Amino acid sequence: MIKRNLLVMGLAIVLSACGFQLRGTGTTELAIKELDVSARNAYGDTVTQLRQVLQRSGVNVHAGAPYRLVLTDERETQRAATYSGGSRSAEYELTTVLSYSILGLNDTQLLSDKLEARKIYVHDGDNITGSDQEGAQAREEMRRDLVQGMVVRLQMLTPAQLDELQREADERAKAEAEALEAARRLQDETPQQSPLEVPGN
Question: Do 138 and 40 touch, CB atoms closer than 8 A?
Answer without folding.
Answer: no
